[in-house]
Amino acid sequence: MIRRTLTQNLTRHLTRRAAAGLLALTAATGLAACSSASGNDQAVRDDGSVDLSKVTLTVGDQKGGSQALLRAAGDIGRTPYKVEFKTFTSGPPLLEALNAGAIDIGGVGNTPPLFAAAAKSNLEVVSGAQMGAKGDAIVVPKDSPIESVADLKGKKVAVAEGSSANYNLLAQLDKAGLTYQDVKAQNLQPADALAAFSSGHVDAWAVWDPYTSQAELEAGGRILVDGAGTVNGMTFQAANPDALDDKATAAAIEDYLKRIARAQKWSNTHRERWAQVWAEDSGLSPEVTRRAVDRRVARPVPLDAKVVGSEQEMADTFAANDLVPSKFDVSDYFSDRFNQSVPNA
Predict the structure, then answer these.
(1) Which CATH fold topology does 7-132+233-333 show?
(2) For residues 218 and 198, what is the distance between their CA atoms, to the nearest angstrom?
């Protein structure tokens, strides 16, 4: 069952924090392991109401992510609270910072929360959107003799461990009758993977947009297979439980989630503007971002049993392939507390 309140599970959160202490101290970001929500306590008035003008919300982001989307939709600088964005290369390091308390909330794909949860990290998934999965792909060089996923056996495949591409690769291999051990997975972040792919040091690259489009348009790649019909195409906003336990920060998070959902829906009908701002923010060419935009339709969805069940299936698959230590209950890391307040498609 999806948990409906956080306060009912304070003991579980405290236990998880203790278990995750070591990971918090060694977070890859090197940011201080203290809750960024702690400075917002003065925002709660004597009558219990919140003065959002005294709140600072610290948001983890990726290039061309939430900040760019909000800017494209004209919503940057319009919040009644201050927003500080911190940029990360991908979801896993962003969630390490979340676990350490260095950020309050951040946007990630469908897989990073599962690896973080398997490590008993501090996180609560609080909203989600279905983006489709055409941009989640395995790409190979145009002149590669590889014509099917089965042909990847024994080949070097670049993939960021714990990313959405990690699950897509695993799922595609399974459909082709292969195991994860049948390929030589190379754990590379996108920038390093692009260099390895472009120079021919790997045979294939499992990745997500806009890097899929970049591989096609700038690195001579072709899509071997995409994730449509195979992976759930979800993206999530995950929060630090300390931030959610803080009344003022939680109020800012609720407002922020509404703005993200509205901007996601806005992007479906303003594709040129979204692609332009995405290019400006990421440094990618407009051709790359436009192709990535054309491959997705953002649809905010409630965090219901269907979403959690899909993520549970993914987590069980990772456990079966020894990519996470053991099976665990995914629902412990999802909350539906904002389902009624965040606009859905």
Answers:
(1) D-Maltodextrin-Binding Protein; domain 2 (3.40.190)
(2) 9
Name which of 237, 231, 201 is nearest 219 in CA terms: 201
> Per-domain residue ranges for the chain?
7-132+233-333, 137-226
Q: What are phi and psi of 27, to 5 degrees?
A: -55, 135
What local confidence, expressed as pLDDT, does residue 37 receive?
62
Going from the C-alpha of 67 to that of each of 91, 160, 223, the distances in angstroms are: 15, 23, 29
pTM of the prediction? 0.85
Which amino acid type is present at position 137?
Answer: A
pLDDT for 11 equals 32
Q: Which of 338, 324, 340 is nearest to 118 (CA)?
A: 324
Interatomic CA distance for residues 208 and 27, integer angstroms: 24
Query: 320-323: long-range contacts at Cβ-Cβ below 8 A with a sequence spacing of 24 or more?
Result: 321/170, 321/179, 321/180, 323/161, 323/166, 323/170, 323/180
- The radius of gyration of the chain's CA atoms, rounded to the nearest angstrom, is 20
Could you give the 3-state DSSP secondary structure of residue 87? strand
Ramachandran area for residue 88 (φ above 0: left; ψ -120 to 50: alpha; else beta) = beta
Asked, colleague to colleague, whether 7-132+233-333 and 137-226 share their fold, the answer is yes
Q: Which residues on adjacent β-strands are paired with residue 62?
A: 88
Yes or no: is domain 137-226 CATH 3.40.190.10? yes
Q: Is the pLDDT of residue 301 over 60?
A: yes
